[in-house]
């Protein structure tokens, strides 16, 4: 089995025709194990400046934009994935897509809300990522993170990708050490993931 980087994996998914925005209902239901109504109820993005960390092809961003957020910045490490997001979200003028890693991204005091689903499992230096998010939020800004229990490797067909799993307790410790006030911790409907909401 071939080991590939996170960026290579997601670009191969695009080459293979994988686009969660275009998923049929059955696959959408599968993805809702990590977000779904519980996740979206924590966001409250209306009239907010929003940061989507690991925007992918725009599956979650599309819903956030539909709710009337003021402006959304989506970051992702994969140029091919961002190209697909650009197509999927082309009807929204209040959008900026940035090809970068969250560990290299800071826009001080810019966002009312940041969120991330299925991205932090790929981030080794979670403390730096959370610190950059914290600095990018306005006072009283919120960060909503969906976390799950993961193995060290993710296998997909003939390839596998290295993951960097940590437990819920370690996420909570990192949130608090950086300065976030934990507002709520809640399991999703499927009990597959846990939602952490912190406020600056």
Automatic annotation (TrEMBL):
<keyword id="KW-0489">Methyltransferase</keyword>
<feature type="domain" description="Methyltransferase type 11">
    <location>
        <begin position="51"/>
        <end position="145"/>
    </location>
</feature>
<protein>
    <submittedName>
        <fullName>Methyltransferase type 11</fullName>
    </submittedName>
</protein>
<keyword id="KW-0808">Transferase</keyword>
<dbReference type="InterPro" id="IPR013216">
    <property type="entry name" value="Methyltransf_11"/>
</dbReference>
<dbReference type="InterPro" id="IPR029063">
    <property type="entry name" value="SAM-dependent_MTases_sf"/>
</dbReference>
<dbReference type="GO" id="GO:0032259">
    <property type="term" value="P:methylation"/>
</dbReference>
<dbReference type="GO" id="GO:0008757">
    <property type="term" value="F:S-adenosylmethionine-dependent methyltransferase activity"/>
</dbReference>
<dbReference type="Pfam" id="PF08241">
    <property type="entry name" value="Methyltransf_11"/>
</dbReference>
